[in-house]
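Have a think about this chain, tokens included, and walk me through the fold.
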Amino acid sequence: MKLLILDAGHCLNLALARVAHRRSDTELAIEAGLGIEADHLRELAPDAVIIPPLSGPMEIEPAAVVSHGEGVDACLAACRETDTPLVWCVSDQLYQDGFDTPIDEHVIPAPRDESLRRLIAIGDRIRSSHPRHLIVRLGPLFALEGGHAWLSGVIDSLVDGENVRAAQDVIFCPTSADAVAMALVGMLHQLNCGSTAWGAYHLAGTEPVSAYTFTSMVRTQLMTRLEGLGERVELGSVQALKHHHDQPLRRVLNCRRVLEAFGVHQKPWRLEVGRLLDDWCQARRGPEEDGTRS
């Protein structure tokens, strides 16, 4: 199976590359941007095109959201012309106001923000005009490398002694980019082998948590590991922010359908964070063990 992934350098795409490297049945082609012409798509002849999520669409300039939407629209046109399956990953922030209960896949986001509504309109066009599609709504992605990796930025800031500010009253399910990559490849292999389970799916980590609690846990675990390495590092602190004074905003995705259709289980974010922190410490310790650190 050959996959074309767009927006090279995104943390999800780097995770997809790691998954493909471990498998003999998956080949990747990578394009730098979102724009793809139909003729180029015919030349590459992928089994599917994957667009990674725009991270934090509520927190960036509206022009960037509009630009992303235009790229997705152009990709949709090329996929329709060539009848190429399209996978569009989107942020849970499209559920701008959240829900009191876990959000099912059939619930289409209805944000108030105009630029976010443009993305919803694109999703409507995908559903109505391109049957072989996956719209995969994700919790906040974290990874150690690549664009929009989140965790790497938190670690770097803490190690540099900088204070990290995080919302205490927004509840979501952090999601490992590695776990998403493994799930997407598995889903696409099943679809490539005859499954007809196209449509919208939710994929997120287990255990709803606030950004503040998540970041605080990262700090605690990082401190424990650095002390285990015999390092004395004065880590920055984590400062709580409050955006919703009446009650927390909950943005928790119900991921039951992806389990029923593809057998994909959610990965506990605590275990994934622990694994990545172990990897980070191993990389930090490596030069010392090789005798190359003075």
Summary: The chain has a mean pLDDT of 93. The first strand starts at residue 2 and ends at 5.
